[in-house]
Structure formats: C-alpha cells, structure tokens
Amino acid sequence: MLPPLLFNLWRVHDFFTEVLTKHGGTGEFKGPWFTDMNYLVTCDSLKVQHMLCKNFDNYVKGHDFRDIFEQFGDGFVTADSETWKYIRNLLHSLIKQRRFEVFVHQTVQKKVYTSLLPILDHAQQQGRVVDLQDILNRFTFDNICSTIVGHDPKFDVGLPTNVAIEKAFNESKEWIFYRHEVPGSVWKLQKWLQIGQEKKWLQIGQEKKMTEACKSFDDFIYSCIASKREELSKCSSVSILREGMEEAPFDLLTALITEERGRVHDDKFLRDAAFNLFAAGRETITSVLTWFFWLIAKHPIVEAKIIEEIRDNLKTDEKKNNHGFLEDHRNHNLDQEQDLKKSVSGVVLGMEEVKKLVYLHGALCEVMRLFPPVPIERKQAVKADTLPSGHRVNGNTMIIFSPYAMGTNEEIWVKDCLEFKPERWISDRGEIVYAPAYKFIAFNAGPRICLGKDLAFVQMKMVAAAILRKYCFRVVEGHVATPTHSIVVLMKTV
Ligand code: HEM
C-alpha cells in the first residue's frame, strides 16, 4: 500500500476516497515491516459516530498524535482526558459569551470595510487578477490576531515584520501532514539531522524551516503575552478590571489571563492556547471562503440566488431600520467612530442580518461537505473494542477517518453527492435541513465538536455577502483547482 500512496501523494485525499469507496468504506493500511505504519482507515459514518460519540472515552488523540503536532503543545487540539476537559470547559465559557460574539463580529465587520473591500476595489480599478485565497488568508490572520491576542497586524499596511509573522505561522504547520505520511522514524531522523545543511531530497531543510518558523511565531505570541500582562498589571486589580469589562468587548488572551479556575495560566499555557486557537479558527475559514468563491464562480445560478436573498433581506431591514436612522441623524455630534460604524453597517451586513440568510448558509454547508477544511482526523483506541459492522480493533490501534471521503459518500449523501447543490440543505419550509454532526463531519462530532462553529458561520456569511454584493468573480482560464495536502485543505496555487 505504501508505494501507491507515495505515488498518489499529490492527490492524496482523492486517492483515499477512491480506495475507501472500492473497499466498502473501511480498509487496513499497512506499511512495510520496518515502519510503524499500521492504520485502520474509514469513511463509514457509523464507525465515526461510535468513536466520536458513543464510545468517546475509548478513542483518544494519543502520544503519537502529540508527537506529530508538537507545535500545538498541550493545547486543546492535542490534549486528552483531564487536561482537555479543563481547556474545553474554560474555552466553552469564554467563546460562548455574548460579548465575545459581539466583539468578533464587530472586528470582522470593520475589517471587511476598512481593509478587504478597499484591497479588492484597488485590484478592480487596476484590472488586476487577484489570488483571492492569499488575500483571504491575510485577512483571516488579522482577524484572528485581533480576537485572540487583541493586536491587529494590519496586513494591508504591509509592514515587513507583520508579513513575517504571518509567514512564520503558515510555515510552522507546513510539514505536519507529511509527518502523517511517512514512518515516525523517518521524520524524527530528519528532524534530528536538521543541524546540517539544507538537503531538499531528504526533506531535512523542511523540518529545520518548520522549527525556525515555529520559534519566530512563538516569539511573537510571547511578546503579546508580555505586553498584555503589563497592560493588565496597570489596572489596580483584576477584579476591578473584570467589573469594568462586564459590558466591554474583549480578546481571548485577556480573558485567559483573568479567568484562572484552579490552575495557573502561565505563559506556556497561554502560548499553547493561543497557537491552537490560531490554528483552529484561521485557515479553516480561509479554506471555506476560497472553495466557496471557486464553486460560486462555476455555478452562476447559485450566485444569483444568493444575491437575490441578500437583496430581499436588505429591503425588509431597510424598512425596519428607517426610524433608527432618522434618530441618529438628529444627533449632530456623531464622532468618527460612530460615522465609521454607520458607513460599515451600510456595506457589510451585521451578525443578526446574516443569520437570516438561509440559502447562503446552505451554500456554505455544501462547500464544507465537498471540501471539509480538516480533511483527515486521527484517533487511537485505548482498549480493544468492536466497531459497528463487527470490525475488531485492538488497544493502541490507530484509526484514521476521512471527512473528505465522507463528503462524497453515497451512503450518506445519496447519488447526486458529487454535485454542488445548496438546495439539499433547505427544507420545503425554507429552513436549514439538519444533518447529524457524525455525517456532516466538517466541525467534528460528539464531546469534541468545534466550539467556534456558530462564530465561523456568521463571519463567513459576513465576508461572502459583502464581497458578492460588490463583485463577481471568474476563475482564470486554465486554472485547475486542486486541494493541497496539508492539515487544512487549501487550494494549490500552481
Ligand atoms: C469553518 C471554520 C471551522 C471549521 C471547519 C472547524 C472545524 C473544527 C474541527 C474539525 C475540530 C476538531 C479538531 C480535532 O479535535 O481534531 C474543531 C475543534 C475546535 N474548534 Fe473549530 N473549526 C472552525 C472554526 C473555528 C473557530 C472560528 C474557532 C474559534 C475561535 C474554533 C474553535 C475550535 C475549538 C476550541 C475546538 C476544540 C474542541 C475540542 O477539542 O474540545 N473553530 N474545529
């Protein structure tokens, strides 16, 4: 199995999908005797439901996973048992707060208006072809920086140091996928040998590059932590700060420093939490938006329906808002911030407005079915167990499931599953059709389901609606869109 896999690395997700379809949804992957590669690979939703929901305690991330994802430290992506429970509960209580939701959405709304749209306007005026994925990736980096560490690097200003931070973050995760594909002994040897000269054929240079990138990004996070601690120490006490913040918007770093719950949140804890949040909430959104605009460009009827839905909703909202608008005008002392807020809300829909866009919601679900941002997931059995359909696994068995292959599994999505059809998500009553998380697996399922799902939907809808109201994108002739083989599925640019 290893030679065919290596031969198909450039199209690894489609290769897995084909092999799994041929083998009824589940197969064993065995590397040669000298490797430690022995996996059960599946796209069977009942097995996935069993691992993620029904027998959750028996399927962990495990040591090997933590080795591969070493940059993630002890954050929620790699943690198991009590450590995971503590971080999950903590983040749940912070991320689900109304004021955090409001803060994130105001940040995104302002950023779309002051940065994303002007960049696209400029490109349009110059008649330039744009790499939309690159623009979106920088935009999402600024957003996640603002909401996690309370600092906006402002990519549009183009300061070289800021671009370097973004580059460092991208590179710090670049070779993680590769570590899944080769025996652990191989990438560990490459990492160990990195002291030497760059030797591309051995990938040694890549491991070295990843370590250096990780260090640069850590320096950035640690400096954010230090300045945040200093800023907070200037307040007379944390309790006063908390009282003051009750109504105010806040970034997650401030919240994590002030919300210790029986455990000390030292700098390493904060670094790990921040790195994991950056990874969870940044490229995932870039990925969905990139594939969304690509699919929309290929499906003009869907595009027209989304635009019509936005217009219809705006018409009703304008009628409702008329009174408020007149009242605002009576106040002649509007300061700059209020002026900005007003102009922004005329161009970029707010969170309550986008929540009404059902068809757009369906289109985004459809994008994530076909291109789930996290294309493969990995679990390790703690004890021997029997999976649905009678498959026996031993303790320590490594199980890989493929959300990518699940998205086009006919048993889950019936015959037309290769088509892009937002309609499959809309009921006769015009509401969103619910699909159980273990089938629509883009956000994971069970106790470890994504905590940022609702936030992500609103952000993506704000960006998609703002862009579609102003621009119509077309794919450059001859451009072939292929998924990258990385831990988050982006689009290959060459
Ligand atoms: C389209 C956007 C997103 C997608 C597709 C997505 C997908 C996922 C997936 C697949 C997982 C499970 C990862 C694993 O356990 O291996 C996850 C977990 C998580 N996500 Fe998201 N995510 C998105 C956006 C966000 C955002 C914006 C945030 C918050 C800022 C966020 C926060 C989290 C957290 C905290 C977890 C950990 C849950 C746990 O382990 O208990 N995600 N997400």
* Ligands: protoporphyrin IX containing FE
Major sheet: order of its strands?
Answer: 1-2-7-4-3
Number of distinct helices: 22
Q: Label the CATH architecture.
A: Orthogonal Bundle
Quote the distance from N terminus to C terminus.
28 Å
Write the layout of secondary structure elements.
Layout: H1 2-7, H2 12-22, E1 26-30, E2 38-42, H3 45-54, E3 59-60, H4 62-68, H5 81-95, H6 98-126, H7 132-148, H8 160-172, H9 176-181, H10 184-192, H11 204-233, H12 238-245, H13 252-258, H14 267-281, H15 283-298, H16 300-330, H17 336-347, H18 351-354, H19 358-370, E4 377-381, E5 385-386, E6 392-393, E7 398-401, H20 403-407, H21 410-413, H22 453-470
Parallel strand pairs: 2-7
Antiparallel strand pairs: 1-2, 3-4, 4-7, 5-6
Helix pairs in contact: 6-7, 6-17, 6-22, 7-14, 7-15, 8-11, 11-14, 15-19, 15-22, 16-19
Bound molecules: protoporphyrin IX containing FE.
Quick take:
It is built from 22 helices and seven strands. The chain has 494 residues and is mainly alpha-helical.
